[in-house]
Each structure stands twice: as C-alpha cells, then as structure tokens.
Design goal:
Shape: globular
Number of helices: 18
Low-confidence stretches: 392-396
Oligomer: single chain
Distance between the termini: 50 Å
Order of helices and strands: HHHHHHHHHHHHHHHHHH
Structural class: mainly alpha
Radius of gyration: 21 Å
CATH architecture: Up-down Bundle
CATH class: Mainly Alpha
Number of strands: 0
Length: about 400
C-alpha cells in the first residue's frame, strides 16, 4: 500500500466514523447517516478539498461494500413474498413506472433536454432497498405490513433496473444479453443447489461449519464471502453488473438459512455496516461534481420531481389494493409512507450513471446531478415518511 492509498483510506475512515456521530447528535436523527457519508465524501473528494481519491485499491473495497449492501438486501427478501400477491403487484407497478419513465424521457429527449434516455429512465424507476434496510430497522418498520410492502417494491426496484441495465445498456444487443442473463441465472441456480447437497443437516461438513462458527475460522462468514465474491466474479465474467451477482448471493443465502441465523447476521452486519458499506457511500459522494450541481439547480430539482412522479405516484396508487396486518386497506398516510420510502434511490443511480459515463453517453456533470438528486431522496423522503402517522401494527 503506497502513501496515497493509505492517506485516502484514512480520510474515508474518518468520514465513516463522523457520519453516525453527527447523525446521533442531530434532533430526531433528521438527517440519515447515508446522506452525511455522501456529504463527507464530497468534502474529502477531488471536487472539494482533494484529501482522498478512488484508485484501484479503494475501488476494490468500494465494490465489496456495494456487493455486501445488495447481498443484505437480497437476504431480506422472502421468495414467498415476491411470488405472492404483494410481489406480483410490485412487479406490475415497476413495469408501469418503467413505461412512464420511457414516455417521459422520450418526450424530454425530443426537446433536446435529456441525453442517454434509457439510462435516465432506468434510474427513475429504482429503489434503494439496501439503503432503506437500516432506516426501516431503526424505525421499527421492517416486520410490519408497511415494511413488507416496501421490501416488495424495493426488491423489484433494485433487481429489475439491474436486469434492464444488462439488457438495454449492454454492448452485445438485447437478444444476446437475454441469453447471457439466462446462462447466468442457470449457473446461479446450480450454485444455490450445490451447498444444500453438501451442507445438509447432519452431514460432516455441516457439523464442521457449526463447530467452527465461533472460532478464529469463522467458517460461515468465510463461506458467505466466498458466495458473494464468487457470484460477483461470475457476473464480471459475463460482463454483467456486480449488483446482479451480489443480489443473487443474497437470495441464495436466504435459501440456505430460510429461518435466518442471528449470529451470522450480526457478524455480516459488523463487517458490512462497520467498514465496507460506509466506504461505498463515502466514495460515491467523492464522485459528485459539486460545481456542476451548483450550476444547474433547476436540473437537480427537475430530476428529483421526476423521481417522485415516475416512481412514487404508481406505488402510491398500487398500495391502495394492498392490505394491512388487520386485513384493512392501507390508509392514505400509509400509502404516502410506502410511496416515499419506495422512491428513495441512490445505488442504482450510481451504477447506471457509471455505465452511461463509461460508454461516453453521459457527461460526468450530468451524472453528478442525477446522483445528487438520488442523495436528495434519501435526505428528504424517509424523514418525511417517518413523520406521517400510522395505524398499522407489527405482523406476527
């Protein structure tokens, strides 16, 4: 490790520590920690004080942080929920959002207002489920009907944009990309099947894993990281976004431990939220060109409004058909809560703008504005949702 990398990692670590400290002293924790990490990244990044940079070593930690963020998001999703009525409704809702986004972006592109229309449309339909998980947990919503509805919409709002990126933004063409996705899915299914044959209850390897779970071997954690890195590597080999591999790893992990494992979850949370995920958010802030954002406040506000209209309004309408824990329809306040949480976006926006910039279809200035708007959703929407009254009780 050279001096520049060590210095960058130091300032990123400082930012990661200051984020929760500042969030804790704020009244009612009005500013989410994620936003503070982004702001800290802006300050130490190349567009402000130039204290840190993202080179290959930091970039690797950033990708692992992103991977763990999506693994934990995929782990929280229950397949039964996604295949049930709520999941099917969330799927249809996302398709409506995407159609609305394409129509809106198409009109703006015809006026010469928007370039890289497909990338912008995908960004407009995203939900930052990984970012929402700690917010929902801290506010006691994760195991409520509101939380389950947000998880359904969030799962579709993360997984389907990534699939859309692979099909519509790939250089291979849509048909070839679909074939590649199908092959990737087949390999992922095989990866999910093999461990259950090897680590089944009562096997020697299962006893070994349990026996070494609390020793220095930490075998369950190492196996989880192998699963994550293996599927990320597989996604890279197939020229797919690492998010897809990480999300698949989360689904597979949930299948392997369907009832959950509190000890493993605690250790993964420590590794993820204690070190790697903060690096992802801080370095995401470092990519924001504050000058470009300051020069175009109208564009920032316009994209924020588009996110609310394109993603939030269809979710609001769809939740009218959902049911709360006591069998009643969600009230207007609960609808607003679910819609506001589901409109919270960032990691997918970071990913899709990164792909567009790398392809030369979007300028870094435009990408910075989109990422800043995604950060604004985290700053504004969850606190607004939390301030709304609710009558929904926890689901048993």
């Amino acid at each position: 490790m050279d001096a520049a990398v060590a210095t960058s990692l130091f300032w990123i670590s400082v930012a990661a520590v200051l984020g929760p400290v500042i969030a804790a002293v704020m009244p009612r924790r009005l500013v989410p920690e994620v936003v503070l990490l982004l702001v800290a990244g802006v300050l130490i990044g190349p567009y402000a004080f130039e204290l840190a940079s993202v080179d290959s070593e930091i970039g690797l930690l950033r990708e692992l942080g992103l991977g763990l963020l999506f693994l934990l998001a995929g782990y929280e999703i229950e397949v039964k929920e996604l295949t049930g009525r709520g999941g099917r409704r969330a799927l249809v809702t996302w398709l409506v959002c995407f159609a609305l986004a394409l129509a809106t972006v198409g009109a703006l592109a015809a006026w010469g207002v928007v370039h890289a229309g497909i990338a912008v449309a995908i960004a407009l339909t995203s939900t930052s489920l990984g970012t929402l998980l700690p917010i929902l947990t801290d506010r006691g919503l994760l195991n409520t009907p509101i939380g389950r509805s947000v998880l359904n919409h969030g799962a579709m709002g993360e997984l389907l944009p990534v699939i859309a990126m692979a099909i519509l933004l790939g250089a291979r063409g849509a048909a070839v990309s679909l074939v590649v996705l199908a092959v990737f899915a087949a390999v992922a299914v095989l990866v999910a099947w093999l461990p259950r044959r090897i680590v089944h209850e009562g096997s020697r390897f299962h006893h070994f894993v349990r026996r070494t779970s609390d020793t220095t071997a930490q075998t369950p954690v190492r196996l989880t990281m192998l699963l994550l890195v293996g599927l990320i590597a597989l996604a890279v080999v197939f020229d797919l976004d690492v998010i897809l591999g990480a999300f698949a790893a989360g689904f597979i992990l949930r299948r392997l431990v369907p009832a959950g494992n509190e000890t493993l979850e605690s250790k993964l949370d420590g590794l993820a939220y204690g070190f790697l995920i903060p690096i992802f958010f801080v370095t995401s802030g470092m990519t924001i060109d504050v000058g470009a954002v300051a020069d175009a406040p109208g564009a920032l506000a316009a994209f924020f409004v588009l996110l609310v209209v394109v993603r939030g309004v269809p979710v609001f309408v769809a939740t009218r058909m959902d049911r709360s824990g006591d069998g009643r329809s969600f009230g207007t306040s609960e609808q607003f809560q679910i819609a506001l949480y589901s409109t919270t976006a960032l990691p997918i926006i970071v990913a899709v703008t990164g792909v567009a910039v790398a392809a030369g279809e979007m300028s870094n200035a435009s990408a910075s504005i989109l990422v800043a708007a995604g950060a604004a959703t985290i700053l504004i929407l969850p606190p607004t949702a939390s301030a709304l009254p609710t009558r929904v009780t926890s689901r048993s």
